[in-house]
Amino acid sequence: MSENPCPRTSPCTSSDPWSAPGSPRSRTAPPGVTVRTRQVASGPESIESAYDEALAGPGTLLAAVEAEREGADAVVIDCMGDPALEAARERLTVPVLGPGQTGMHMAALLGHRFAVLAVLPRLTSRFEAAAARYGLASALASVRAVDVPVLAIESAGDELVARMTEQAVAAVREDGAHVLLLGCTGMIGLAERLRPALDAAGLDGVPVVDPVPATVQVAAGLVRAGLRASGLSYPPPPRKRYLGVPVA
Question: What is the pLDDT at residue 8?
């Protein structure tokens, strides 16, 4: 793992200012691990619906396959919707992780119930369905939205942090959440700004999971432990012809 990269595959076509040198994503790598970003060539500019996830899937899968061919030890899909996650696990021989699944499980490890801070209200049902799919429905206290689109996160600044704080406090005091999970990978680095606000509200014991660095850490751990997804759960796809679609 120290030599080969752990690519963070971005399933969106929009530019990624958070990956610039010195930015939050550039600091996600644990010691001895190289993280490289691969942007998909086609798909939606952001992912905020099941429709977006479906359109992001092919490009994400192709990028993941190319990353493994170039020597990646693991692949992290940079979206809380985990587009093409299971397909990539079938196709690749290295660990493939999504921050939605990994972040939820990490939140469940840290407390009895967790809440997701989503970008938009329309994503509430998506997170509820994901929690059920990942076996964590009983641990999900709530999904609370800050009502800021993905592409507006960077410019929202202090207003976004204020909304996150408001919803986070409500999730703990009203919904019974013991842990908070950032619901968009575009919120990377904002856990550092949210924690002082929670401390000021008297909630200093509530963990905030930032899903991108958390998932990169888990991916590195799996590589070092020599583990990957089960071939019984994710058997390789059968050989066949695919018409009109790019196949890796």
Answer: 60
Predicted confidence (pLDDT) per residue in 15-61, tens digit: 554 455 555 555 667 788 888 888 888 899 999 999 999 999 999 99
Angstrom distance (rounded) from CA 60 to CA 53: 10
| CA 92 to chain CA mean position, Å | 19
Rg (CA), the chain: 18
d(CA 227, CA 217): 14
Q: How confident is the model over 103-129, as pLDDT tens digits?
A: 999 999 999 999 999 999 999 999 999
Q: Burial of 166 by CB count in 10 Å (0-12 exposed, 13-18 middle, 19+ buried)?
A: middle
Largest distance between two CA atoms of the chain? 59
Task: Retrieve residue 53's tokens.
Answer: 């996830």
Share of the chain above pLDDT 70, in %: 88
Using an 8 Å Cβ cutoff, are 206 and 180 in contact? Answer: yes
The type of residue at 36 is R
CA dihedral 184, 181, 208, 114 (to 10 degrees): 170
The C-alpha atoms of residue 5 and residue 248 are separated, in whole angstroms, by: 20
Could you tell me how many residues make up the chain?
248
Cβ atoms of residues 148 and 119 within 8 Å: yes
Q: What is the pLDDT of residue 20?
A: 52
Q: Write out the H or E segment, with its range, that includes residue 120.
A: none
Q: What is the mean pLDDT of residues 154-164?
A: 93
Structural element, H or E, at residue 57: helix 50-69
